[in-house]
Design a protein that fits this description.
This protein has 577 residues and is of the alpha/beta class. It contains 19 helices and 21 strands. 36% of the residues lie in helices and 19% in strands. A hairpin with a 6-residue loop joins strand 20 and strand 21. Helix 1 packs parallel to helix 13 and helix 3 packs antiparallel against helix 18.
C-alpha cells in the first residue's frame, strides 16, 4: 500500500479541532462494540464455523471454547474445506455461514439479540455521545444492531432528543430530510424492531431512501469510518458510485485501521480514488475506537467529569511497564522440566560403509542397543557384549572403538546426540509397558480417557510428550502432558477429528490439573526413591526438584533461588531461554 494514503493522527486531530461543528459524520462498524463485550463480525464467523463443525461431529459447542487458538481454527477450517462448505467469495463468509447455521430470519434475529442485549456503552460511546449532544457531529451511520450509540448519548445527557432511523421504520425515513434533530441511522436494522440484514441477498442492497440520504450527507460532510471491515457490498457499491466526484466528502473520507490491520483490495482501491480528488482522505492508524473517540472529544467538547474519571483507565493501559529482568548469568528455571545432571559422553563407533537406516532395524538384538548413523559412522550405546552381537548380526567384522562424543563435538545440541538419548528413553519406557508415538511421545494403553464427546470408533489415552533442550550449558528434559488418540481412519495424521479431540480435552485443563498430571507422570516414568534410572545402556541422573505450573507453588522460593520478586508489582523476574 502506498505510504501517502496514510493520514498522520496528530494532523487529523488538529484538523478536526479547527473545522466547524457538523463537518464530519461517523460510520461505526462492529469493531466499535468490542469493549462492550459484543463480538465482532469476524468473531461471529468463527462461532458459526464452530457450530457447523460441532454439529457435524455431534459434540457440545463448549468443548471447543478457545476460538483464538490457531490449532482450533485450522482444525475447523480443514473440516469445512474437506466438506466443501465454503462461500464463493471469502469476503462473504459472515453472511454465508450465518445463513448456513440459521436459515430462518427469525432465528438470526434471536441469535443477534443474545449477543447484543444488556451490553454497556464503553467510554468511546460516551465520548461520541458528547460529540453528538454538543452538535460537533449530528449524524452517525452504523451497520451495528445494538443500541450502544443511543445509550451513550442518553448517559451523557438524559432525555436528549434525536432521531433513530432504520430500514423498517418507514414513517421515520421520510423525516430524514425534514427533521432538525441529530440522527442515528442503522443501515442494517435495529435488533429491537427490525428484520435484520445478515445474509448475502439481504446485504446486496440498501434502502433507497437511506441510500439517498447517505449521498446527501456525503455532499456536505467528511465521513469517518471506525471499526468497520467493509464487507458489505451495498455500502461499498454506494461509496464507489460517488467517491470520484469532488463534490462529495469535502472534509475527506477517513478510514480508521488498527496497527495490525490491513484493508482488503477493494477498500484500498476506494481510498486511493478518494485521495486522488481530496488530499484529506486516507487511512488513519488508531489503537482502538475508545481512544480515538476520547481524543476527538478532548479536542472539541466541554469537560465531562464522568468521562474524565473513566479516561484514567485508558491512560493506565498505555503506561510502559518496567520490569527488572534477571541478569544474563543467572540460572533460568522452567516450570515443567527436570535437569539431567549426568549423561553419556562416549559411544562405541565403527565405519558404517554401505549401511542404510533400514538395515539397522533388522538385527534381533536391536532392542538392546541404541544406534545411529552419522557422517559415515555407526554409533552405539549399550553393553559391550550386546553391541558386539548387534554388529555381528549386521555382518560387520570391525572392532568397535570408544569415542569421546564431546571432545569430537558430537554431543550437546547436535540432533544426532539428542536423537540417541530419545531412543534410549523410549526403550526404557516401552519396557515399562508404555507405547510410543511421534518421535518422543508415550501413552499408557491402560489409561483411556472417559469423555462422552469422543466419537464412536475413536479412543483417547493419557500421554506425555518429552523434549530435550540445552540451556545455560545444561541438559533438561521437558515434560508436557497431552492426549493420544487412536483413530479408525488409516491416515491418522490428516484426520481432523483426532486434532479436535486432543484440543477439546486439553483446552479444559488448567494449571492445577496440569501440575497434578506432571506429578503422576514423573512418579510413573522414573523411580520414586531415586532421582535416576538405568537402562543397562546408559544412566541418566535427574535433579531432585520438579517445578510445577500451579501458580500457588510460585510463593515457595526454595526451588527458585534465582527468581526475584518485584516489591510493588509482586511479579517474578525470570530469565527466559
Amino acid at each position: 500500500m502506498e505510504k501517502n494514503l496514510y493520514i498522520n493522527l496528530g494532523t487529523f486531530l488538529n484538523r478536526f479541532e479547527v473545522r466547524p461543528n457538523g463537518s464530519y459524520s461517523f460510520f461505526l462498524g462492529s469493531g466499535t462494540s468490542v469493549q462492550s463485550g459484543i463480538p465482532t463480525g469476524a468473531q461471529l464467523v468463527w462461532d458459526f464455523k464452530r457450530r457447523l463443525y460441532c454439529d457435524h461431529h455431534r459434540i457440545a459447542h463448549e468443548k471447543l471454547r478457545d476460538l483464538q487458538s490457531s490449532e482450533n481454527q485450522k482444525m475447523i477450517q480443514d473440516f469445512l474445506e474437506s466438506q466443501k462448505i465454503l462461500p464463493a467469495n471469502p469476503r462473504l463468509e459472515y453472511s454465508f455461514y450465518f445463513e448456513r447455521c440459521f436459515p430462518s430470519s427469525d432465528d438470526r434475529k434471536y441469535y443477534i439479540q443474545t449477543k447484543v442485549s444488556n451490553s454497556i456503552p464503553s467510554i468511546g460511546h460516551k465520548c461520541l455521545g458528547r460529540l453528538f449532544v454538543e452538535n460537533v457531529s449530528d449524524c452517525i451511520f452504523t451497520t451495528n444492531f445494538d443500541e450502544l450509540i443511543e445509550s451513550g448519548i442518553q448517559l451523557v445527557k438524559p432525555g436528549h432528543s434525536f432521531l433513530v432511523v432504520s430500514p423498517e421504520k418507514h414513517e421515520r425515513i421520510g423525516e430524514l430530510e425534514r427533521a432538525s434533530f441529530s440522527k442515528v441511522i442503522k443501515l442494517h436494522g435495529d435488533y429491537r424492531y427490525d428484520s435484520l440484514k445478515n445474509t448475502t441477498e439481504e446485504l446486496k442492497s440498501l434502502d433507497s431512501n437511506l441510500a439517498a440520504f447517505f449521498k446527501k450527507i456525503g455532499a456536505s460532510k467528511g465521513l469517518i469510518f471506525v471499526g468497520y471491515s467493509g464487507n458489505d457490498d451495498s455500502i461499498l457499491t454506494l461509496l464507489e458510485e460517488i467517491v470520484d466526484n469532488k463534490e462529495y466528502f469535502p472534509h475527506g473520507l477517513v478510514w480508521c485501521l488498527r496497527q495490525d490491520q490491513k484493508p482488503n483490495e477493494r477498500i484500498e482501491s476506494l481510498l486511493t480514488r478518494a485521495r486522488a480528488v481530496n488530499e484529506h482522505s486516507g487511512f488513519l492508524i488508531i489503537d482502538n475506537f475508545d481512544e480515538l473517540a476520547y481524543l476527538l472529544y478532548s479536542k472539541k467538547c466541554k469537560r465531562d467529569e464522568a468521562i474524565e474519571k473513566e479516561s484514567k483507565t485508558l491512560v493506565n493501559k498505555k503506561q510502559v511497564f518496567n520490569m527488572d529482568f534477571a541478569l544474563a548469568n543467572q540460572q533460568p528455571f522452567i516450570l515443567n522440566a527436570v535437569e539431567i545432571s549426568k549423561f553419556p559422553s562416549t559411544a562405541y563407533s565403527v565405519t558404517s560403509g554401505d549401511l542404510r537406516w533400514a538395515d539397522l532395524k533388522n538385527p534381533n538384538s536391536r532392542d538392546k542397543v541404541v544406534y545411529s548413523l552419522f557422517k559415515g559412522k555407526l554409533y552405539l550405546w549399550g553393553k559391550k557384549d550386546d553391541c558386539a552381537q548387534y554388529l555381528a548380526e549386521l555382518k560387520i567384522n570391525q572392532t568397535s572403538t570408544s569415542i569421546d562424543l564431546f571432545k569430537n563435538k558430537l554431543g550437546e545440541e547436535s540432533s544426532f546426540y539428542q536423537g540417541m538419548i530419545y531412543d534410549a528413553l523410549m526403550i526404557h519406557f516401552q519396557g515399562k509397558g508404555f507405547q510410543r508415538f511421534k518421535r518422543a511421545g508415550i501413552f499408557d494403553p491402560k489409561s483411556a480417557v472417559n469423555d462422552r464427546s469422543i466419537p464412536r470408533g475413536y479412543q483417547a489415552f493419557e500421554a506425555v510428550e518429552l523434549q530435550l533442550f540445552w540451556g545455560d550449558g545444561k541438559l533438561r528434559l521437558l515434560m508436557a502432558p497431552t492426549i493420544y488418540v487412536k483413530s479408525p481412519v488409516q491416515d491418522m495424521k490428516n484426520d481432523p477429528v483426532v486434532t479436535g479431540i486432543v484440543n477439546r480435552i486439553k483446552s479444559n485443563r488448567y494449571n492445577q490439573k496440569v501440575g497434578e498430571l506432571l506429578k503422576v507422570w514423573r512418579s510413573r516414568l522414573f523411580q520414586k526413591t531415586n532421582d535416576s534410572f538405568s537402562l543397562e545402556i546408559l544412566a541418566l541422573y535427574l535433579t531432585r526438584h520438579f517445578h510445577l505450573p500451579d501458580i500457588r507453588r510460585l510463593r515457595r522460593l526454595n526451588f527458585y533461588k534465582d527468581a526475584s520478586i518485584m516489591k510493588n508489582q509482586k511479579l517474578f523476574s525470570i530469565q527466559m531461554i
